């Protein structure tokens, strides 16, 4: 059945019915998810439909299943070049060229990547991703033959299996995917220069794929992720320390040029690119408050209270329970951090020398 779908998908692709080809390849993959050739061919259909991040993800999957497949590297490079991710494209092309030295397309595309990289090296501004707009050509209207199966091409997108959100710091963006109890080996994350690909395939659970085109470029080798008990946390290193107004790229949002820091004085340096005058730099204010709290010199009871607050804030659960129980039961005269000592008995009050405990009657 999968081979029949693959044959029909190839025929649809040859006839420029790219959406039908994509649909058929997806059905074949459901039946045979370990077939690298299907992912490589679906990547090509995605490229034709300008689904570039999906094309990169498919090519990566094909490479994972069959690292010797040269055309998978070519498909990945083609999609990355359209996304203006020339370093990633060049790396894929060099690997593909080593696997297929007789294929001339690799050397030609490597040269083109090197030229594009050279252009970017001398550019002080953040490249505007116009390549996507140039290649944004609508696919031809599909005309199904009478003998073709009556397939539903346009379906409502399914609801994602997991929720995600993001926040950012000056140097990085942190993406959180709320997925509980996922084994580490069921999570795969790939980074491009401006793409992120996340795949979660846990036994007994619906497969999850998240493949956004990012707001701005990142540094793939500095990115990392952690699989925790309740979530997957992905840290993206920003290529340029600008404020991301969203996680995903949009042609409607302009990316502000990078500021040449060395030529701008500290008093003139902007906090974040913005068209609004006198925008408050909240990150700077937060850092200043933390510094003042750290450097604050306290005396007497204030210093002691701050000391105990710091202990409680950084303590584990048992230490906190010990502090709470001892303080309450002793009417504020004992503060212990040893739960083994105070957990099994009532903590008696211990007044200072020269004073005595008094029980209040209500």
TrEMBL record:
Residues in CS domain copies: 159-248
PROSITE patterns per record: CS, SGS, TPR
GO MF, one example: protein-folding chaperone binding
SMART domains referenced in this protein's UniProt entry, alphabetically: TPR
This protein's UniProt keywords: Coiled coil, Repeat, TPR repeat
Pfam families attached to this UniProt entry: CS, SGS, TPR_8
TPR repeat placement: 36-69
SGS domain location: 271-362
Coiled-coil region(s): 35-62
Biological processes annotated in GO: response to stress
Family: Belongs to the SGT1 family.
Protein name per Swiss-Prot or TrEMBL: Protein SGT1 homolog
Organism: Gossypium klotzschianum
């Amino acid at each position: 059945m999968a081979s029949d779908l693959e044959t029909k998908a190839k025929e649809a692709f040859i006839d420029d019915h790219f959406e039908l080809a994509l649909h058929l390849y997806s059905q074949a993959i459901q039946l045979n998810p370990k077939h690298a050739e299907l992912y490589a061919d679906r990547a090509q259909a995605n490229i034709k439909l300008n689904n570039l991040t999906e094309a990169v993800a498919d090519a990566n999957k094909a490479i994972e299943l069959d690292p010797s497949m040269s055309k998978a590297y070519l498909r990945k490079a083609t999609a990355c070049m359209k996304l203006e991710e020339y370093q990633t494209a060049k790396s894929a092309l060099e690997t593909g060229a080593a696997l297929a030295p007789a294929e001339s397309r690799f050397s030609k595309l490597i040269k083109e990547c090197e030229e594009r990289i050279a252009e970017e090296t001398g550019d002080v501004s953040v490249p505007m991703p116009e390549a996507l707009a140039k290649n944004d050509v609508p696919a031809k209207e599909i005309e199904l033959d009478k003998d073709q199966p009556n397939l539903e091409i346009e379906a409502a997108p399914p609801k994602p299996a997991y929720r995600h959100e993001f926040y950012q710091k000056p140097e990085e963006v942190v993406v959180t995917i709320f997925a509980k109890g996922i084994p580490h080996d069921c999570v795969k994350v790939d980074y491009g220069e401006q793409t992120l690909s996340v795949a979660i395939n846990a036994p007994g659970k619906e497969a999850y794929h998240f493949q956004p085109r990012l707001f701005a470029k990142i540094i793939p080798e500095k990115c990392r992720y952690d699989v925790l008990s309740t979530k997957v946390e992905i840290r993206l290193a920003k290529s340029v320390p600008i404020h991301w107004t969203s996680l995903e790229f949009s042609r409607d949002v302009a990316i502000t040029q990078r500021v040449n820091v060395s030529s701008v004085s500290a008093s003139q340096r902007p906090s974040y690119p913005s068209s609004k005058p006198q925008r408050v730099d909240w990150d700077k204010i937060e850092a200043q408050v933390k510094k003042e709290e750290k450097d604050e010199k306290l005396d007497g009871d204030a210093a002691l209270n701050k000391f105990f607050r710091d202990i409680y804030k950084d303590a584990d659960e048992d230490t906190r329970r010990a502090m709470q129980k001892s303080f309450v039961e002793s009417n504020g005269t004992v503060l212990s951090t040893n739960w083994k000592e105070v957990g099994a008995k009532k903590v008696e009050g211990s007044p200072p020398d020269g004073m005595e405990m008094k029980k209040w009657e209500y």
